Amino acid sequence: MAEERLQKIMARAGIASRRKAEEYITAGRVSVNGELATELGAKADASTDVIKVDGKALRFPSKHVYIALNKPKEVVTTLSDPEGRKTVRHLIERKIKARVFPVGRLDYHSEGLLLLTTDGEFANHITSPKTHVEKTYVAKVNGNLNLEQLEQFRAGIPLHGRRTAPAQIKLLKPGTNPWYEITLTEGRQNQVRIMFKNFGRLVEKLRRVRIGKLKLDVPVGEFRHLTDQEVSRFLKTK
Q: Are residues 109 and 142 in the same domain?
């Protein structure tokens, strides 16, 4: 097997997505044949080199795991939390022995569809800006947006020095505290909440209901395995 970048090998082994694997490398947690590899351009041959993360040799799973979870509110989208809060690991650990990790993020106060997997390449494909995988949310907001604000929301707003990508938004349920449906093709941290805040509106409830063509179809706190067809559909997304 030819040499590949370390982050790609680590993703294939199910350690983490490529982006997270890069953090492991720069933090000095990865070694190749006994020597620390801290350069993101470092390469190795997975068939001949001994690659270790935190002192443990990489192992490539014979079959990857793909899970759709309905994350409750006040659960952290990580596998551990220094503050001792409940994490997504607590929701699956008794039934899933494989070392899965979250695909992207869903903030602490939000709920809904979250994918977990052992396949770093799958995670990278879904989270990469190049693939434009849509994520759809429903949000309860403490006030209405006017027509001009809706158009600005759709066109994109300045966020941390870079304008957000064009988005879709429509009113689902009118009222003093209306519900909106929002579809994004990027997943910047707290993006939906920040976009509404830009117009002086606070999101009171936020639920992700769809990723790509996959709809949320399990009860809160529960999960199911993706079918082979669902996995293939994600990988065909461009």
A: no
